[in-house]
Amino acid sequence: MQPLATQMDMTGAGPPPGTAPPDPDADLAARAARGDRTAFEALLRRHYDRMHRIAWRMTGSRHDAEDVVQEVCCALVERIAGFRGEARVSTWLFGIVVNACRDHHRRRTTLARMKEGLGVLLRLGPAPDGRDLHRRAWLAGALARLDPRLRETVVLVAGEGLTHAEAAHALGVAEATVSWRLHEARRRLKSDPLTTDPEERHGA
Question: Is the Cβ–Cβ distance between 91 and 67 less than 8 Å?
Fold first, then answer.
């Protein structure tokens, strides 16, 4: 098995400048901003699963993820009117989820609890075999050992497939900062023996 840093695609390569496709959510967001409840509900249904997945990966707890996403959904009732189309709707939504996770972590979560909560990843998916189960546990532990700001960047780019520019907008940082964080995450994952697959270390 390859080291974690090479397993996860952290390139965040987007389309060439000027070729980005139109935002498929733009019409729904515009209607929702004007008070169209049906459009608002459709927008949430479209993105709820990814919002929940981001919150789950960042909090390490299904229960906390539910709390975070419910808070975000409630806040969006008012915040959607402030959307100005400066980024894709999905990028804007994911940025709100990231900030909500940060607030939630400050209020309720300690590092020890978060690491313990990441164990729920072992129960993801339909009856994984032993090797897949091992990989999930290993990945959860590796993410837990990263600095929170590195982890949230990896989750958005490697986990959710956002480009560097989209992740930068979601996190409220410069695109260069995203690139640096991914480089630093890769370096730490390669240098920390705990984030190298035990099977590979022992030549299994």
Answer: no
What does the alpha-carbon distance between residue 75 and residue 178 come to, in Å, rounded to a whole number?
26
pTM: 0.56
Dig out the tokens for 152 from the structure: 């949230």
Let me know if residue 67 belongs to a domain: yes
Q: How many domains does the chain have?
A: 1
Q: pLDDT tens for residues 93-104?
A: 999 999 999 888
Q: Say if residues 72 and 64 touch (Cβ distance below 8 Å).
A: no
CA angle, corner 188, sides to 183 and 191, nearest 5?
Answer: 125
The C-alpha atoms of residue 89 and residue 172 are separated, in whole angstroms, by 15
Residue 9 in any domain: the answer is no
Range of the domain at 106: 24-201
Kindly report each contact of residues 27-35 with a partner whose C-beta sits within 8 Å and lies 24 or more positions away, as own/partner. Answer: 28/89, 29/80, 29/83, 29/85, 29/89, 32/80, 33/80, 33/81, 33/82, 33/83
CA–CA separation, 11 vs 154, rounded Å?
10
Output the 3-class SS for 136-149. Answer: HHHHHHHHHHCCHH
pLDDT given for residue 82 in this prediction: 87
Instruction: For residue 65, give both structure tokens.
Output: 């993820």
For residue 150, count other CB atoms closer than 10 A to its CB: 21
